[in-house]
Amino acid sequence: MTIQFHDETFRDDYTFHNSPEGIRRFPFPFDQDSYMYSVNLEPHAGGKAGSPFEKRFDVDEHYVAEMRDRAITLAEDPLRCQSLPHMELAGWDFLELVMVSKSEDYPELFMLNRDGDRWHWINRPLGIEQRFTFLDATTLPCGPMEYITRQTQGDHALLDQRDGNLWMDAGMVTSQADWSLDFDIGMNFFEWHAPVPKAHELGVFQRALKFLLNLQQGAPSRRLNWTMTVNPRLDTSPENYHKWGPEKRTVAPGNVGAKQYLRVELQTLWRLPRSNAIAFPIRCYLCSLEDLVTVPKWGRRLHRVLRDLPDELAEYKGFAVNRPVILDYLAPFDDGAPTSPGI
Ligand code: HEM
Question: Which of 9, 281, 11 is nearest to 155 (CA)?
Answer without folding.
Answer: 281
